[in-house]
Amino acid sequence: MMSDGGIAFWGREDGNAPFKQMAAWGPEDALTSGPIAVAPGGKSIYVISSIGSNTGELRELDFATGKEKTIVKDDEADVADLFIHPDTHAIQAVGFNKARRSWRIIDDSIKDDFAAIAAIRDGDFNVANRDRADKTWLVVFDIDNGPVHYYAFDRTTKKAQLLFVNRKALSGLALASMKPISFKARDGLTVQGYLTLPPGVEPKNLPLVLNVHGGPWARDSWGYDGEVQWLANRGYAVLQINYRGSTGYGKNFLNAANREWGGKMHDDLIDGVKWTVDQGIADPKRVGIFGGSYGGYATLAGLTFTPDVFACGVDIVGPSNLITFQETIPPYWKPLEPILWQRVGHPQKDAEFLKSRSPLFHVDKIVKPLLIAQGANDPRVKKSESLQMVDALKKAGKVVEYVEYPHEGHGFARPENRLDFYGRAEHFLAEHLGGRSQDNPKPGKSNDSG
Asked: What stretch of H or E contains 431?
């Protein structure tokens, strides 16, 4: 990583040659570029690069000349997956993750295999491994309403045998389906995401939970999501939005989020809620916001900057002050500081701007109930981020519930803590949105907020 937030790749042609810089990507391309693998023959390397392109393209970089040639690209999505032959090291297929995973065949010798695999069942597949003879492949299918399925695929017969599923207890359950959606944000940008509806319920005027992914330089993808299934089981429509700044959609979409924490990134979330309401799916008076890390920040921002949109919020390890958040990052994040300065704002040079985007300084605007959950040993978002928000809310006479888990970091890993948190959260949501909870299986108000 470079001091400006970019990245540089160094390599050498053989074990006796000196290292030299082979490629460099500036901060605007750093999150959509990088080295992948040595190409056949050892004289070049595969890279993903968005220099001169909106999306991350698969290219081959010559060690000696430094010249690149494009192998495959997509105008809408970055390269996401590679299928590489284990012996020849040749790339045989390239995957793109748009609304769903899709494959672009490079090596025609596997074209019929991929076609036969795609016909095995509904879902998105990947080839996890293969035998030495390259006759049997281990194929993995992700689905949105059940466990992961593993198959042995015979390349000779083009037949597949189911080996096992990763979580057998999920098989046969009435789980919810995840539907890709897209809408136009207020500035005309196309934003994509996923909508999951509770099974067996008319999709009309439902309570809605906006489930905001963390990162923010990450994304939601199609497939089984236990948290989403839990919410749908409790009677909520669940909206996941890949707001600007989410990865996979090219650098223009990603860089459109620069200095937009609490700004246009938040507008995308609100526009998504409006889209769902306009479709007649969501009850505008029963919308909650829920998320961790950046999603926790988005929850605080939602109740602060758009207090009329949400009936309640659940913040998990979310930053409340964008200045103190950056001043307390862990040592292993230090190389990321230039990226934070560029994409969020500089804690000293942009202090007033960051205060305007920090929920801590606007607690007077919060009028809806809030649940805040924090890991006591979180190295990325210190517990002080939650504590200072709780203190400010209490001083302002606001309704807030705070729970802190010892021996937890950035999120909750221990089963007993996860069960406790989700129990509290479902009671909280049931009380304020009217969904179900384990102790109150019929929709309606709960007598116990946890």
From this structure: helix 415-433
Buried b (16+ CB within 10 A) or exposed e, 74-99: beebbbbebbbeeeeeebbbbbbbbb
Contact residues for 290 (Cβ-Cβ < 8 A; gap 6+): 209, 210, 211, 212, 231, 299, 313, 314, 425, 429
Minimal CA–CA distance to 128: which of 115, 142, 107? 142
Give the pLDDT confidence of 222-249 residue by residue, as tens digits.
Answer: 999 999 999 999 999 999 999 999 999 9
Token pair of 237 as six digits: 């429509």
Place of tokens 């307390």: 328
Task: Judge contact between 94 and 106, C-beta under 8 A.
Answer: yes
Q: Please tell me whether residue 439 adopts helix, strand or coil conformation.
A: coil
Q: Is the pLDDT of residue 445 over 70?
A: no
d(CA 166, CA 195): 24
Q: Residue 12's pLDDT band (boundaries 50, 70, 90)? A: confident
**Distance between CA atoms of residues 427 and 197, nearest Å:** 20
Tokens linked to 111: 């074209």
pLDDT digits (tens, 9 = 90+) for 307-322: 999 999 999 999 999 9
Out of 50, 246, 293, 358, pick the active-site residue. 293
From the candidates 144, 220, 268, 378, give the one annotated as an active-site residue: 378
What's this model's pTM, rounded to 2 decimal places? 0.95
Q: In sequence order, which ranges of 293-336 are alpha helices (DSSP H)?
A: 294-305, 322-327
402 C-beta neighbours (distance < 10 Å), count: 17
Q: Among 203, 393, 246, which residue's Cα sits nearest to residue 313?
A: 393
Q: Of these residues, 149, 213, 410, 432, which one is catalytic?
A: 410
Q: Is 362 a catalytic residue?
A: no
Residue 139's nearest CA partner among 129, 147, 131 is 129
Q: How far apart are CA 80 and CA 95, in angstroms?
A: 6
Q: What's the rounded mean pLDDT across residues 170-182?
A: 96
Q: Rounded to whole angstroms, how far apart are CA atoms 421 and 429?
A: 12
Q: What is the DSSP string of 21-43?
A: EEEEE-TTTGGG-EEEEEPTTSS
Which tens digits make up the pLDDT trace of 18-40?
999 989 999 999 999 999 999 99
Flag whether pLDDT at 441 surpasses 90.
Answer: no
